[in-house]
Design a protein that fits this description.
Layout lengths: L23 H12 L4 H9 L3 H12 L3 H14 L7 E7 L5 H14 L4 E6 L1 H6 L2 H8 L1 H5 L3 E4 L7 H17 L4 E7 L4 H6 L4 E7 L4 H4 L3 H6 L2 E5 L6 H16 L11 E4 L8 H17 L2 H28 L1 H15 L5 H14 L1
Parallel strand pairs: 1-4, 1-5, 2-3, 2-4, 5-6, 6-7
The structure holds guanosine-5'-diphosphate and magnesium ion.
Magnesium ion binds next to helix 5 and helix 7.
């Protein structure tokens, strides 16, 4: 072939000899350093001592989709589990631009000022694909990033929402074992991710701005219904009166929703994340909520339900992965798809063939 005679970028050429200046000893040291992967028990011990670097490494391990890391990841999670659960988990949602990052910076900083240890995790499958908003977010939380009592972790990477959400749930356990008592889970309120977040938090906060219609804000009714509090952000400057008006309107709208199982009446409030006003009042609302649900035992009940939900979710996800990654199924899947396409087989018959095959493997 003609191509072979050309110097393609892919053709191998003789390499350059290693210069003497790069000593073998140095190269070896670097290689060794790369190889030192902490064991599960080392990670657990360090996390329990509040070591944020160990926490980061453990989260990276949990996020790793490589099956050979799965066992070690599970070991770390199981080891941390007895030390988790002693926290409050708060979900924050709102459309892009509403001020989530700015709010979390102000809110998180306030919480650390009253002695809390705050971990911020993000569930945003879109950003893990585009790598979009994460970097911006991290720089917007400049103060919180530097705060000794805070830990910020951008979105887990993953190609399915289920996968991202499961990893976030596992990361919550790791953060709690590391001593973080207030876990904030951020998500973008435009897709299904808030439903997933709702099933892993104790309290759900919806951030809004005044003046924009609901359609414009892309917030569905279902998300409003999930909210334990609606916070109207950017209540500053010329916006203050509009924000107050919006507060009255939302209060009225919330009355139309059915009562919550928690026995809690959702509250509407305003704040300026930018000027850091109204932040302490939000914490006071959240504290009232926790007093109520701990008294009426809804708190434990909800966490138990969530654990069961995640058990089933995990089974569903792993069954699906196992099915679709099995080489024999993949082969048969191709054949059956063609047969369905050519009208030789009904979709149901094809599905049955595939499942029958799977159950025999
Ligand atoms: N005036 C005003 N602007 C704000 C406030 N909070 C956020 N912003 C601005 O709104 C824009 C979007 O904020 P950001 O936190 O990135 O929103 P996110 O996309 O929801 O995370 C930025 O330009 C912020 O400076 C606020 O309380 N008041
Ligand atoms: Mg943001």
């Amino acid at each position: 072939m003609e191509n072979q005679h050309k110097k393609s970028a892919l053709s191998e050429v003789n390499g350059v000899n290693q210069p003497d200046s790069l000593s073998n000893a140095v190269a070896k040291r670097i290689q060794q350093k790369r190889k030192v992967i902490p064991s599960a028990s080392e990670l657990i011990e360090a996390i329990k001592k509040g070591d944020k670097i160990a926490l980061s490494r453990a989260i990276t391990l949990v996020e790793n989709t490589n099956p050979e890391h799965l066992e070690r990841a599970n070991e770390v999670i199981n080891g941390c589990l007895p030390f988790a659960n002693k926290s409050v988990r708060i979900g924050i949602t709102g459309v892009p631009g509403v001020g989530k990052s700015t709010f979390i910076e102000a809110f998180g900083t306030y919480l650390t000022s009253i002695g809390k240890k705050v971990a911020v995790l993000a569930v945003d499958p879109s950003s893990s694909i585009s790598h979009g908003s994460i970097l911006g977010d991290k720089t917007r939380m400049e103060e919180l990033v530097k705060n000794e009592n805070a830990f910020i972790r951008p979105s887990a990477s993953g190609d399915s929402l289920g996968g991202v959400a499961r990893k976030t749930r596992e990361s919550i356990i790791l953060c709690e074992a590391c001593g973080f008592d207030t876990i904030i889970i951020e998500t973008v309120g435009v897709g299904q991710s808030e439903t997933a977040v709702h099933s892993m938090v104790d309290f759900f906060l919806l951030l809004k701005i005044a003046g924009a219609g609901d359609e414009l804000q892309g917030i569905k009714r279902g998300i409003m219904e999930m909210a334990d509090t609606i916070v109207i952000n950017k209540a500053d400057g010329d916006n203050i009166s509009k924000a107050k008006l919006a507060k009255t309107e939302f209060n009225r709208a919330l009355h139309l929703f059915p009562a919550k199982n928690s026995g809690w009446n959702p509250k509407v409030t305003t704040c300026s994340a930018y000027e850091k006003t109204g932040i302490d009042a939000i914490w006071s609302i959240i504290s009232d909520y926790f007093t109520l649900v701990k008294e009426n035992h809804f708190f434990e009940k909800k966490r138990q339900d969530q654990n069961q939900f995640w058990m089933i979710e995990t089974i569903n996800e792993q069954l699906k992965n196992n099915f679709y990654s099995h080489p024999e199924i993949l082969k048969l899947l191709d054949e059956q798809k063609k047969a369905v396409q050519n009208n030789e087989l009904s979709p149901f018959a094809a599905a049955k063939n595939l499942l029958d095959k799977y159950f025999k493997i």
